[in-house]
Amino acid sequence: MNSQKTNHKDRNGDRIKHRDLDSTIVTGAAATPSPDLDSETTLRPESELPVTSAPRRKKPIALILGGLGIGAIVAGVAGYHYWEYSSAHQATDNAIVAGHIHQISSKIVGTVANVLVKDNQLVQPGQLLVQLDPSDYQNKVQQAQAALASARLQANAAQATIALAAQTANGKTTQAQGDVSTAQAAITTAQAAVQEAQAGIPAAQAVVQESIAGISVARSQVAQANANLARAKSDFDRYNTLAQQGAVARQQLDTARAAYDVAQAQQSSATQGVQQAQARLAAAKVGVARAKSQLAQAQAGITTAQAKLAASRGGLQQATASGQQTAVNRSQYAAAQSEIDRSQVALKNAQLQLSYLNITAPSSGRIGKKTAEVGNQIQVGAPLMVVVDNDYWVIANFKETQLGKMKAKQPVEVKLDAIPSHVFRGYVDSVSPASGAQFSLLPPDNATGNFTKIVQRIPVKISLDPQSIKGYESRIAPGMSAEVSVEIK
Q1: What does the angle CA 458 – CA 459 – CA 463 come to, to the nearest 5 degrees?
Q2: CB contact at 8 A, 110 and 84
Q3: What is the DSSP string of 8-43?
């Protein structure tokens, strides 16, 4: 009744509202409004309203069928797009980022004196990474320089001896020719020369014996100098190590260094003493030969007095002997030149090893796996750290059934698990010449009776566009997982 009174008061909105409210009271059906509700007639009682349940049942079925139809259309469109995309692309999530990893090691044995980089630090090509202690290699350079100087001195001495021997040979030849012309008038002089030469031979031989003894003494001095040098070097190395550890005073280290330098000088002096003694022995032998030659010349002069032909032969023999001595001196000079070449090579090698004390970066990148510490004693080839290059690429392991239309230069999209919000661009660089199983330590042997066919994976190298990774270089690292999609059309 309240609803009817309300309908009389409001013929439009309120009446419709109450009609809806009354219709909701009817359970399992809905009331159908009269076509002429806009008139002033009152609503009929709820018991008199006609029940129309059949149209209300068909409406949800139509909505469901319509939704299914729309869903089928959407699924068909999505399926078509997926089919179109998948037919033009080959994708895999079996991919990792790869890059150049440069192993940093030492070419020489040494002690780490300074480490100039830290873990994960960015470095440039040629940047100094590690410095080694230069003491030992500086000493080797000094020794090579001293050996080169000694070899040059020997060469100069041999060259001077060649000139002296040539002059002597020329003089003997001239003297022989003069003796031939004056032989008949110089018989008495020749006899006196014979006696003088006979007396000079024992003296020259005594000088030879003295020179031989001098060589023995000089060699013993060299041995003693070598022993002193070895002891001084050992003391210096020990004090140097103790000084680095702070166990001894700097003054003791300087004293050991001075003793080592003195021992080196003594050893060089003793070596030169041997060389001088050998030179004296050679000169003494030349003196003996000269004395004998003079005796022969004097005897030849006597003979020349009797026969001019015999005197001429004697002079020729003397000149020939002098020429042979010149050949010997030339051989000594050639040996000295070879020693100079050997010393120069040794010096260059010592300088090259000295240059290896500074270990530099081979390329730009970041430092990783650093094990070098100050004071470490390192060996040749021992790993100190690695430099991870900024040049990255992706190795994607595709199934062999995905490679039918894949070829170089095809565009590629790459997503990294570490940077899922960014899509990197690239292209197919190359396809591996064999499957990953063939490159394994133990390749599979399929020549068996129980063979099972397994789809193999072939590594494909994906080059990344430098502009695509610009700004992300520091966030990309070799070994990261990636998802790759190659456009094969």
Answers
A1: 145
A2: no
A3: HH-TTHHHHHHHHHHHHHSTTS-BPPPTTTTSSPPP
The full set of domains in the chain, from first to last, is 2-88 (no CATH), 92-98+382-487 (2.40.30.170), 101-132+358-368 (no CATH), 135-355 (1.10.287)
Half-sphere exposure of 233 (CA within 13 A, CB side): 14
Spatial distance between the Cα atoms of 305 and 297, rounded to a whole number of angstroms: 12
The answer to whether the beta carbons of residues 359 and 112 sit under 8 Å apart is: no
CA-closest candidate to residue 484, choices 460, 465, 458, 466: 460
Distance CA 16, CA 13 (A): 5
Per-residue pLDDT tens for 295-316? 777 776 666 666 655 655 566 5
442: helix, coil or strand?
Answer: coil
Entry pTM: 0.49
- Environment class of residue 376 by beta-carbon count within 10 Å: exposed (0-12), middle (13-18) or buried (19+)? middle
Question: Each residue of 35-90: pLDDT tens digit?
Answer: 333 433 344 444 444 444 445 555 678 778 777 778 887 787 777 666 666 677 88
What's the CA gap between 425 and 101, in Å, rounded?
Answer: 23
Q: What's the token pair of residue 122?
A: 């960015």
